[in-house]
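Priority: medium. Attachment 1 of 2:
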């Protein structure tokens, strides 16, 4: 193996730090992590102990003002003085190591300052007010964001609620999670001193929560090391086996990856493409995965080639040369530059075979992409900097990737997951559903469930935006991802231009247009749960179903009326037609002698949930529960009157059918209505706009139970994409 191969004697992977263009030696987080604890280097007026932090930070920010770091170190060191870690080391070694990890990844100064202070408020006499006074609002916000909630206040809920608090804080400032991830990495590195049960418990939370968060935030360097540390604790036997495999491979004759790397260098030199060709050893978990998948490992499976170039266009140039001079393994080719993953990651992936059968996987990216691939959001410069800085950010759609080496995000197009890397779509959705999960157990289990899903597919909206969804997601998931709870009103979808049911499973790259009903009170059916994979959708649907229990068939309440209740036949007074006045639904109100009206704003019919209000002149109006008109009545303090549906021999309803215009549409719709045994009282057809037509029908139904079937029948008419209850009866147009 090459000089970069993992030393089999070390318990972890080589985790390449940031690759610098100016030939700077590659950084090894792990090696420097230890070095920070062992021997601080002398450094100007700065305390010796932060020498490594300063060195790592200057590699990314040569002109950095280091004064805040110095002050933060002085405060952290003095306040933690006398405290020791379980290992016996002075406590300050921990915040120092965490800060070094972040500095190596290219974090900016506010993150580093907060990182040095991250345990002061939790574990010392330092207060948040003091941090704010000395270091400003941003540092204070970050320290607060990672400060744990107290067990004495929260009991068993302390851990879930701490994560909830941290994620909410991350929604406002993603640097909170940068610090938490680095904190967890150092704690995992030093976990050996804990009792085995405690090690396992911490490793599990790391596996279920922190690693997926690192992955989603694109912090590959932290993710891979955390994976190996968790692997060693939770699967010690498999870990030892992989360790033995790697050791044996290092001892073995020949170095096919090194040979192929040499050939690739030659090919690119002849083609005139400036490129660095490196060998990246797979981390332990990656070797384990390949081993499980293939059974036998070839020497070339222990690492991958990494080709680093200066410009985006060079990536494709390299690809062309490789596919010309070697035999490409076509199934391994993936373009994560043109079609980026949900996190910030960009690269071309391919594999090439030599005549002797050795296959090398190859990653091709610019230096800029590499920095982002390794450090993800941690590498963002202050993402909340004032406009003067912001104007230097690459604008969406350019992504020139000129490789300055200190990534300011990638900005590679109209992709919602990527337009604002500080507030990715998955985080917004997570923050939405957590609000609907107030109890800590539901939050904690749903969080793990959410994070367990690979967000692998990207579907496009007609406006060019993108939704990131887990593989296997359906149109139901897409609806809730896009509209939140408003998706209750979704009635269908067009997938790649064709009408599709909501249960349709989406594939990567599909274009999805969601068709929304106009009826604010309509809602999801319980079958939607069968098609919802995402927690956001599942929680919203369950919540709706709980608050809207399936109504019994039209109630037969005759004989149960108490004397003070007056059954009232309630024709809609504003209905222009008089022929059916005797045949409207009747509601029973708890107010003797009152005249009852069914409100025109929401046209309630059995078996709607209803409420009623006394209005001027002693009348009572009946509204559907949730009708905006009813909400207004409540707001102005009108008393609600008890009400329920009485006998319902017949009733009227006004329905709106939204359709794509076509010949014979009116004839087909009226036929569908007639076949359901329903009489048309009035109908209007609005002139088409953009090939869409709205038909409004006021209909007389034999009984309430007919309504769902009628609406289904109307929706089944080709071209109709929505049928909903109208806000107002049809105008007289018959
Ligand atoms: Mn800590």
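Attachment 2 of 2:
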């Amino acid at each position: 193996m090459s000089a970069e191969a993992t030393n089999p004697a070390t318990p972890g992977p080589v985790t390449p730090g940031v690759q610098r263009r100016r030939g700077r030696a590659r950084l090894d987080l792990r090696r420097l992590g230890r070095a920070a604890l062992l021997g601080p280097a002398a450094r100007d007026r700065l305390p010796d102990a932060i020498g490594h932090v300063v060195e790592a930070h200057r590699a990314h920010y040569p002109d950095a003002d280091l004064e805040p770091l110095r002050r933060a170190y002085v405060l952290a060191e003095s306040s933690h003085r006398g405290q020791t870690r379980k290992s016996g080391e002075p406590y300050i070694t921990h915040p120092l190591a965490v800060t070094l990890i972040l500095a190596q990844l290219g974090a900016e100064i506010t993150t580093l300052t907060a990182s040095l202070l991250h345990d002061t408020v939790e574990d010392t006499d330092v207060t948040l007010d003091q941090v704010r006074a000395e270091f400003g609002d941003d540092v204070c916000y970050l320290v607060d964001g990672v400060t744990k909630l107290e067990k004495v206040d929260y009991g068993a809920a302390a851990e879930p609620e701490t994560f909830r608090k941290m994620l909410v804080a991350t929604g406002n400032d993603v640097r909170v999670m940068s610090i938490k991830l680095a904190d967890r990495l150092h704690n995992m590195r030093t976990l050996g001193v804990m009792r085995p049960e405690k090690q396992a418990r911490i490793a599990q939370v790391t596996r279920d929560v922190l690693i997926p968060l690192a992955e989603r935030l694109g912090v590959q360097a932290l993710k891979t090391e955390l994976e190996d540390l968790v692997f060693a604790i939770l699967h010690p036997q498999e870990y030892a086996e992989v360790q033995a495999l790697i050791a044996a491979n290092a001892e073995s004759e020949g170095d096919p990856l090194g040979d192929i790397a040499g050939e690739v260098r030659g090919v690119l030199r002849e083609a005139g493409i400036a490129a660095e060709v490196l060998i990246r050893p797979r981390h332990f978990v990656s070797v384990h995965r390949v081993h499980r998948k293939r059974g036998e490992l070839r020497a070339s499976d222990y690492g991958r080639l990494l080709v680093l170039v200066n410009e985006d266009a060079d990536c494709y140039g390299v690809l062309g040369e490789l596919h010309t001079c070697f035999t490409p393994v076509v199934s391994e080719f993936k373009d994560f530059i043109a079609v980026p993953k949900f996190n910030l990651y960009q690269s071309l992936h391919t594999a090439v075979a030599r005549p002797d059968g050795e296959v090398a996987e190859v990653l091709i990216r610019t230096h800029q992409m590499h920095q982002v691939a390794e450090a993800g959001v941690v590498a963002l410069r202050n993402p909340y900097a004032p406009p003067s800085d912001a104007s230097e950010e690459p604008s969406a759609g350019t992504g020139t990737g000129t490789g300055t080496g200190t990534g300011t995000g990638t900005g590679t197009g109209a992709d919602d997951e990527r337009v604002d890397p500080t507030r990715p779509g998955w985080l917004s959705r997570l923050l939405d559903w957590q609000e609907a999960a107030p109890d800590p157990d539901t939050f904690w289990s749903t969080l793990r469930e959410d994070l367990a899903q690979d967000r692998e597919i990207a579907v496009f909206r007609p406006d060019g935006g993108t939704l990131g969804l887990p593989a296997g997601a359906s149109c139901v998931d897409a609806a809730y991802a896009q509209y939140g709870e408003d998706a209750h009103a979704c009635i269908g979808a067009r997938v790649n231009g064709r009408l599709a049911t909501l249960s349709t499973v989406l594939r990567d790259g599909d274009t999805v247009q969601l068709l929304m009903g106009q009826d604010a009170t309509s809602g999801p059916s319980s079958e939607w749960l069968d098609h919802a994979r995402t927690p956001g959708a599942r929680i919203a649907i369950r919540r709706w179903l709980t608050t809207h229990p399936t109504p019994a068939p039209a109630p037969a309440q005759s004989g149960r009326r108490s004397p003070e209740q007056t059954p009232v036949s309630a024709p809609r007074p504003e209905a222009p037609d008089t022929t059916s006045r005797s045949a409207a639904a009747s509601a029973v109100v708890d107010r003797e002698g009152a005249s009852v009206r069914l409100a025109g704003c929401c046209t309630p019919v059995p078996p709607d949930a209803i409420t009623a209000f006394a209005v001027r002149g002693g009348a009572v109006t009946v509204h559907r529960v949730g009708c905006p008109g009813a909400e207004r009545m409540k707001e102005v303090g009108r008393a609600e009157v008890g009400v329920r549906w009485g006998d319902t021999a017949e009733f009227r309803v006004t329905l709106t059918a939204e359709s794509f215009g076509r010949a014979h549409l009116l004839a087909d719709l009226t036929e569908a209505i007639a076949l359901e045994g329903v009489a048309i009282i009035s109908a209007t057809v609005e002139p088409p706009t953009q090939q869409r037509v709205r038909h409004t029908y006021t209909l007389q139904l034999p009984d309430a139970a007919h309504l769902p079937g009628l609406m289904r029948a109307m929706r089944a008419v080709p071209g109709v994409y929505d049928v909903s209850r109208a806000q107002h009866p049809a105008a007289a147009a018959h």
